[in-house]
User: Fold DUF5615 family PIN-like protein from Spirulina subsalsa FACHB-351.
Amino acid sequence: MTIALYMDEHIRRAITNGLRLRDVDVITVQEDGKQGEPDENLLNRSTELGRVFFTQDDDFLTLAHHYQQENINFGGVIYAHQQSLTVGECVRDLEIISKASDPEDLWNQVQYLPL
Assistant:
């Protein structure tokens, strides 16, 4: 099985397009009509859709930690600092995670990029 991704609203379009060119199942916050929603709503929505949330917003690290501490289930978060990866590196690492993992591998977890 593969992991489907839910892209935060500030993720560069080039990353989303690059993943789609590699047959990674991706939807964006904008495509889902959820732009401007609070972070908690977005994480809950990605979980509801059975997708792992990809972000470069470190507020999600705090939110995921809170969920872990309170035993609130979430579908997983993949985090990359905005300046730590090129677009190509980000696409490569997300493709690897998506194609080599099962959804339960990231359930209630935070995965950091680069790998």
